[in-house]
Amino acid sequence: MSILIAPSILAADFANLQKEVEMLNKSQADYIHVDIMDGVFVPNISFGIPVTEAIHKHAKKPLDVHLMIVNPDSYLEAFRNAGAEIISVHYEACSHLHRSIQAIHNLGAKAGVAINPHTAIDLLGEIIADIDLVCVMSVNPGFGGQKFIENTYSKVSKLKDLILKKGSSAKIEIDGGVNLDNAPKLIQAGADLLVAGSFVFNSDDPQATIASLKQF
């Protein structure tokens, strides 16, 4: 199976959002990654439910919604209704993570858990068999265009070992600083899904850039 690609709409031209979504529809992207930031859990504010609904209205690719917010449980149903097919909550933001995962599944969505660069893989041992995806942050969350953290390769390898050990079917998603240089190493380490924002949308030909990431 070829690598899955989820361009992050956070790096798109918001003044031409419909056009950007339609471009992704025509591309080889597998998902559209939607970063939700509240200015509390992360030091930035992106957009919320109305913009997610607007993206979904034009999207022909499933929405992979990444909640970088405090108290995500209060918004799970709203984002599901807005079109999210995958909903990822942060390990660091959930005091009752298993309950959050159950709530996402009960809404009919796939459940993901995102982890910050400082969060150890071992902490997922009790939940890994219950989730569909782990979003490994390879930059500190909050802003696009950051430099990739090199320790991510070993972290992905550890996560892959944990998934195999626990008999989990969870996919490994990498979010932050992904490009053509590190993509092959991430895939070799065990990544299944790559999020790319600035690298795609700042390129001269975003569709060709997505295709180049799909080749690995």
UniProtKB/TrEMBL annotation:
Mind telling me which InterPro entries this protein's record contains?
Answer: Aldolase_TIM, Ribul_P_3_epim, Ribul_P_3_epim-like, RibuloseP-bd_barrel
Where's the active site on this chain? D35, D175
Report if keyword Manganese is assigned: yes
- Name the GO terms of the biological process aspect: pentose catabolic process; pentose-phosphate shunt
Q: What is its EC number?
A: 5.1.3.1
Q: Where does a divalent metal cation bind?
A: H33, D35, H66, D175
Give the family per the record.
Answer: Belongs to the ribulose-phosphate 3-epimerase family.
Q: Give the protein name, as stated in the record.
A: Ribulose-phosphate 3-epimerase
| Source organism per UniProt | Algoriphagus alkaliphilus
The organism's taxonomic lineage, starting at the top: Bacteria, Pseudomonadati, Bacteroidota, Cytophagia, Cytophagales
